[in-house]
């Protein structure tokens, strides 16, 4: 049976209309210090949620090999996701990337690359100022793992739009060495400090309310690149301190939070998937 040219044309148009770009994100999960046993669960969950992600399907690749950080390799990715990375606990600390690898990372940001940091990512590359700015703040300490209530401050972002206003669950509630708002970040989540116990000593001003997750429309780390990109050519940054336990990664509330933040980051006008 021969199909008419007009019918074939309709099929072509329908296929074009339903096709969507495929975003690629590199998960980097190297650890030289504390290693979270939830890393395999996190990678599995991210990959499982990739095909149905919004605003476009995502192919997640994963590595713990720092030598993969070359300009050529990184240039194929719409975003880099640092998943619970940690530097060594030695003094001086050994970082998860060496100087050449950090240069490739910085060049990636300077070219408009997007960044996502999850949980202990804020405790890596701790002697690398551009990374501290791109993440928004460095980890200081956390009290004992316990139940507490996370509170949504800004529900307009996809990372929080489907979350309950108050979410009580078991987590490591991080304290930070600076306030991400000083870099222009918008804090999305805080914690009700009356719902958990913190007996530690806070030596730094992390701002109020207590920041737990935030976004930067234009990641502050890119300004360290040479030449520095214009603001409009700078990618986005999303960081969440949540995600310590395997059980957290298995909840729809948390996965909606993470995938919403990733999707928001991909809506940067520098994202490769939408610029091809």
Short note summarizing the structure:
The protein is 24% helix and 20% strand. The protein has seven helices and eleven strands.
Ranges where pLDDT stays below 50 over 5 or more residues in a row are 1-18
**Helix fraction?**
10-25%
What is the C-alpha radius of gyration, as a whole number of Å? Answer: 20 Å
Distance between the termini: 37 Å
Portion of residues in beta strands equals: 15-25%
**Oligomer, anyone?**
single chain
Whole-number average pLDDT?
93
Give the strand order, joined by hyphens, for the main sheet: 2-1-3-4-11-10-9-6-7
Largest sheet, strands/sense/barrel = 9 strands, mixed
The tally of strands reads: 11
Shape: globular
The helix/strand order is HEHEHEHEHEEEEEEEHH
Count of runs of 4 or more consecutive helical residues? 7
| Structural class designation | alpha/beta
Explain what you see.
The protein is an alpha/beta fold. The protein is built from 7 helices and 11 strands. The protein has helices at 5-18, 39-49, 71-74, 99-110, 129-135, 246-249, 252-266, and strands at residues 23-28, 58-63, 79-83, 114-118, 139-141, 146-152, 166-171, 175-176, 186-192, 213-216, 237-240. It has a 9-stranded mixed beta sheet with strand order 2-1-3-4-11-10-9-6-7, covered by helices on one side. Strands 5-8 form a two-stranded antiparallel ribbon. Helix 2 (39-49) links the parallel strand 1 and strand 2 (58-63). The protein is globular. The model is unreliable at 1-18 (pLDDT under 50).
